[in-house]
């Protein structure tokens, strides 16, 4: 049996490798041509010490000079003594360059494109091999016909041949212009990644997801993964946009609500003339109860003002969540993941 080990490097690059149940993580990394810093291989020097953010494992013999009991209790591991017993996410205290690995490069072809929304374009590409990433992460897509890239979060589940994206139609934006007016099914698309520390952590308590506009994309990826891996805690999504035209993927959200037994969502529209049942910002329709007295993980993806607005709202209700994870995106002439 083998497990997926996600190695998160300091420079934001991720690599997901396969590690057999009876294999040391350092050996699996070396087999994948990734050199995690390593000296002794005997659990004596501590050079290969990393932090295991999620997952289960067994540890071999090591001495306290290499890793203390307190560090072990905090989730630190020695990859020269670690054997996984589940999929794991490991933070490596070194850059990808220092570990002599490179970000993955993927070639694909445009399989479908949806331009029905006046403000948003969604599209799907198909790669030759399944693309591994953590639900919520993003990639850099090369704009066809240029040397420029734009950063977009996956809106699809990981480990599939098909990868989907949801992008805002920015006036005069390079990728927006291509997708709105030029793109054709079959076009070659190249992207690098995955990147980012905004991804779904193990669901150990209720989860509150707050999406602004196309910040919905990473949450779709997370929810699709959760559909195949049902959590034991409730998930709630608040999805806010500026106008009615900005509301997209409602059919998919309804399908996810039907498939996930303890998932619910609501939408809000800022435009006062929209006629939408819930108007204003998402925080206008939340209460302290949604923070479960702090026993909640809060995820936010949207423009910087939204992220800061959520911070102020939480301070105003006087509840500090167990975890607060966010990703801001901004636009020069294009929307990208920050």
TrEMBL record:
Its cofactor is [2Fe-2S] cluster; FAD. PANTHER family: NADH OXIDOREDUCTASE HCR, PROTEIN RFBI. Transmembrane segments: none annotated. PROSITE patterns: 2FE2S_FER_1, 2FE2S_FER_2, FAD_FR. This is Benzoate/toluate 1,2-dioxygenase reductase subunit. Residues 103-201 form the FAD-binding FR-type domain. The keyword Oxidoreductase applies. Keywords: 2Fe-2S, Dioxygenase, Iron, Iron-sulfur, Metal-binding, Oxidoreductase. The keyword Chaperone does not apply. Residues 3-96 form the 2Fe-2S ferredoxin-type domain. It comes from the Bacteria. InterPro entries: 2Fe-2S_ferredoxin-like_sf, 2Fe-2S_ferredoxin-type, 2Fe2S_fd_BS, BenC-like_FAD_NAD-bd, Beta-grasp_dom_sf, Cbr1-like_FAD-bd_dom, FAD-bd_FR_type, Flavoprot_Pyr_Nucl_cyt_Rdtase. It holds the Pfam family NAD_binding_1. Coiled coil: none annotated. It comes from Simplicispira metamorpha. One of its GO terms (molecular function) is dioxygenase activity. NCBIfam families: BenC. Gene3D superfamilies: 3.10.20.30, Nucleotide-binding domain of ferredoxin-NADP reductase (FNR) module, Translation factors.
């Amino acid at each position: 049996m083998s497990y997926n080990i996600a190695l998160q490097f300091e420079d934001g690059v991720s690599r997901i490798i396969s590690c057999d149940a009876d294999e040391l993580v350092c050996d699996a990394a070396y087999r994948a041509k990734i050199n995690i810093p390593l000296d002794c291989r005997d659990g004596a020097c501590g050079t290969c010490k990393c932090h295991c953010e999620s997952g289960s494992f067994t540890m071999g013999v090591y001495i306290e000079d290499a890793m203390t009991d307190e560090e072990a209790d905090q989730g630190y591991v020695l990859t020269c003594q670690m054997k996984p017993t589940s999929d794991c996410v490991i933070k490596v205290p070194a850059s990808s360059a220092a570990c002599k690995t490179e970000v993955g490069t993927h070639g694909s072809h445009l399989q479908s494109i949806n331009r029905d929304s006046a403000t948003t374009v969604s599209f799907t590409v198909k790669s030759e091999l399944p693309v591994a990433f953590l639900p919520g992460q993003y990639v850099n897509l090369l704009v066809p016909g240029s040397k420029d890239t734009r950063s977009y979060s996956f809106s699809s589940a990981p480990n599939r041949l098909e990868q989907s994206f949801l992008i805002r139609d920015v006036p005069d934006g390079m990728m927006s212009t291509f997708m709105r007016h030029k793109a054709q099914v079959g076009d070659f698309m190249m992207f690098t990644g995955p990147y980012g520390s905004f991804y779904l952590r193990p669901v150990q308590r209720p989860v509150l997801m707050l999406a602004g506009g196309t910040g919905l994309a990473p949450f779709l990826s997370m929810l699709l993964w959760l559909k195949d891996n049902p959590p034991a805690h409730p998930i709630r999504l608040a999805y806010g946009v500026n106008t009615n035209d900005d509301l997209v993927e409602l059919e998919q959200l309804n399908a996810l609500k039907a498939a996930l037994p303890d998932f619910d969502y609501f939408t809000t529209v800022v435009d006062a003339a929209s006629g939408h049942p819930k108007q204003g910002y998402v925080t206008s329709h939340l209460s302290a109860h949604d923070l479960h007295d702090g026993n909640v993980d809060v995820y936010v993806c949207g423009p910087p003002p939204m992220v800061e607005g959520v911070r102020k709202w939480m301070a105003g209700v006087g509840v500090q969540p167990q975890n607060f994870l966010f990703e801001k995106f901004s636009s020069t002439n294009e929307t990208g993941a920050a």
